[in-house]
Amino acid sequence: MTFTTLRTTRLSRLAVLAAVSTVALAACSSTSASTAADSTTVTDPWVKTVDEGMTAAFGVITNTSGEDITIVSATTDAAPTVELHETAMGDDGAMSMSPIDGGFVVPAGGSLTLEPGSFHIMLMGVTEPIRAGDDVNVTLTFSDDSTLDVTATAKDFTGANEDYDGGDTMDGMDMGHDSTSPSADSMNMEGDS
Ligand SMILES: [Cu+2]
Fold first, then answer.
1. What span, in angstroms and rounded, lies between the C-alpha atoms of 44 and 41?
2. Residue 174, domain CATH
3. Is residue 192 one of the residues assigned to a domain?
4. Which of 26, 59, 160, 162 could be 116's S-S partner, Cβ–Cβ 3.0 to 4.6 Å?
């Protein structure tokens, strides 16, 4: 009688211990799971100087994880509207840019280069001039809702003046087709020095 009681108590104590350690393991694995932001680095981030209107941010985004990651949006204090853009040649042979469907995908163990004439982060509606040497803070948001703050350094660049192809979403905003811009055929696609 006494023996049986002791044995039961001991077994249930073991069961409790097992349950506790399972919970501990679960908690541990959930807090140590890495986010897309944890796996991402941005090399040489920079933004093109501008007085007002549109400009763009560039850099090399590297994914150190074993899975593709997706950047779905970006924000910055320097502009009220930010879009993720790609630049492509249209049917007429002119380069134009438009928001990219599905965001920027950075392949597992690989990188995605944002550069003039290609993928870029579009800053629209800039009202405060961005001067060479300024630091512009850009926050990237990933598909898992994690975020990464990047400090882009402003520098002068004469290219990246592609026509914008998504104008219907930009009510009442100066899209930067300013009179001082070079015409499309003098666009500086070779100038990514
Ligand atoms: Cu753009």
1. 10
2. 2.60.40.1890
3. no
4. 160
pLDDT digits (tens, 9 = 90+) for 96-116: 999 999 999 999 999 999 999
How do 81-89 and 120-126 pair as beta strands?
A: antiparallel
Look up the domain containing 6 and give its range: 1-33
Residues near ion ligand 1 (CB < 5 Å) are 85, 97, 122
Based on the fold, state whether residues 17 and 86 are members of the same structural domain: no
pLDDT of 72 reads 98
Q: What is the pTM of this model?
A: 0.69
Tens of pLDDT along 29-74? Answer: 444 479 999 999 999 999 999 999 999 999 999 999 999 999 999 9
140 lies in a domain?
A: yes
Contact partners, residue 166, CB within 8 Å, separation at least 6 = 83, 98, 99
Ligand 1 centre to CA of 2 (Å) is 80
Please tell me the total count of domains within the chain: 2
Centroid of ligand 1 to alpha carbon of 24 (angstroms): 48
Rounded distance, CA 164 to CA 124, Å? 11
CA of residue 98 to ligand 1 center, whole Å: 6
